Amino acid sequence: MTDIFTTLASYLERSFVQNAIIVGVLIALCSSLLGVTLVLKRYSFIGDGLSHVAFGAMAIAAVIGLTDDMPLTLAITVVCAVLLLRMGKNAKIKGDAAIAVISVGSLAIGYLLMNLFSTSSNISGDVCSTLFGSTSILTLSSFDVWMCVILSVIVVLFFVLFYNRIFSVTFDENFAKATGQRAGLYNLLIAIVIAVIIVVSMQLVGSLLISALVIFPALSAMRVFKSFKSVTICSAIISVICALTGLLISILAGTPVGSTIVGVDIVVFIIFLIIGKITGGKKA
Amino acid sequence: MSQIKCKNLTLGYGSQEILSGLSFEVNRGDYLCIVGSNGSGKTTLMKTVLGLTKPLGGSIEFSDGLSASGIGYLPQQTDVQRDFPASVYEIVISGCLGRGGFHPFYTKADKALAAQAMERMDIKGLKNSCYRELSGGQQQRVLLARALCATRDILLLDEPVAGLDPKVTADMYALIDSLNKNDGVTVIMISHDVDKALRYASHILHIGTDIFFGTRAEYEVFKANRNGG
User: How far is CA B116 from the centre of its chain?
Assistant: First the structure.
């Protein structure tokens, strides 16, 4: 037992581990904040679709030969988020189908581009780490860390300032519109922020597993808590704790970071499901 | 003086017309009931008045200090809401958000308004209860309290008693009636139940193949003629 702690302590002294923990916690916090809204608005799959878009965008950035792919990925993902939201409302192709088209399309094109133009000798390794995050979180540059800190601050500020409006638009969009709230604008802002979160989170868990980071904490919190505020706070706490636990386990056991974090999220979800069943049973 | 004046409205979605040639006006303190069979366009009409759907033709004018955003609305419940983790207080006070100006947080005035609305709807004791665990009647009171936070001028109610049992339905009608008579709130209500509508409403708008707009007394004549001839 003491062995584990000494190993852990020696790891924690290293700056790349510290960076990983800072970024991991921030990403977990941001992704959980809007998760509640996403789940309640039945938008869970938009997160999934956008993460695939982000994968495609990263492939394009790699092909063009950009050293830093984040700005381009961010721009493309934001545009797609806005498009998806618009399409959901009044297009010939309905919401879920539109998401499927965009997500599968960008996944395929992304992989194709990587295969055709990549200069790397280990394509499948590159693809795998983009999809599942693998170890990229342990090789963050200080620019990545600062970018992540700044974007996280923006996301948290947005969430706090618009908290009441996000609630209103999530609970009842028609009422919000009818009483003169700018529901369309808030939806747009929510979509943009979700895109930002996804691009930032890609470094942690990879593009395939982001949805889990967004959705699991919210779902867990919703089993047990009964007001919007308590659900939001609880899902943020769950998400941060799961990310920390997952990171530490993966450092100690050498498991892939993304899947370990999602694994912890799943365990917590099952625990909350059971707690919810027990406490819910008492009330009925 | 009229609060809402609709002239020669044509309703529908996209290119599909549901209803045309609709004219009516609502004055302060009126209790207007919109009746008509399923699919006749009642909810579309309400959404058009609220500005959620654009009319295909005609005009809607607001006057007497009313604007399109000064309307309280009690929508039909959606699936999302039935499973929504929110406390009664959170929902009621969210009605204050449309009151102009950008305040990130609720002001003292908002809180007072929410408390007053909950008092009026007799749901003060439920303040911290979870919305999805309330009975249907209680949920409607919560949504009504939220609408009262948005405005004290005019309420649009879309089938406020749908799915409620007879006793709760009677309570709900009495509550709406008292808002209209005692608080001077203009009420526009969609109802399936023509008999109940006739009991409380001052005006009736009947939409469908034939359109009628007039006072309750006139409507009884219209109905008798229609049934007789």
Answer: 20
Query: Is a pLDDT exceeding 80 seen at residue B7?
Result: yes
Query: Do the chains contact at A177 and B100, CB–CB below 8 Å?
Result: no
Residue B59 Ramachandran class (φ > 0 left, ψ -120 to 50 alpha, else beta) = beta
- Chain B residues with CB inside 8 Å of A231's CB? 85
Question: Tens of pLDDT along B27-83?
Answer: 888 899 988 887 788 888 888 888 888 888 888 888 766 776 677 888 887 777 877
Which chain A residue has its CA at the smallest distance from B127's CA? Answer: A227
CB contact B47 to A (< 8 Å): yes
The neighbour count for residue B19, using CB atoms within 10 Å, is: 21
Domain limit, last residue, from B100, B124, B150:
B150
Amino acid type, B40: S
Q: Residue range A70-82: average pLDDT?
A: 85
Global pTM?
Answer: 0.85
Check if the beta carbon of residue A133 is closer than 8 Å to that of residue A206: yes
Instruction: Copy the structure tokens of residue A263.
Output: 């694994």
Which ipTM score applies to this complex?
A: 0.85
* Contact residues on chain A for B97, CB-CB shorter than 8 A: 164-165, 168, 176, 179, 181
**Contact between residue A269 and residue A216 where contact means Cβ atoms under 8 Å apart:** yes
Same domain, B122 and B192: no
Domains and CATH numbers, chain A: 2-279 (1.10.3470.10)
* Cβ pairs bridging A and B (under 8 Å): 93
Best B50, B74, B94 residue to mutate vs chain A (most A CBs within 10 Å): B94
Tell me which chain A residue has its CA closest to the CA of residue B158. A175
pLDDT tens profile A9-49: 887 788 888 888 888 899 899 989 888 888 888 777 777 88
Summarize the confidence of residues A115-124 as an average pLDDT: 70
The domain total for chain B is 2
Q: Tell me the average pLDDT of chain A.
A: 82
Distance CA A27, CA B112 (A): 37
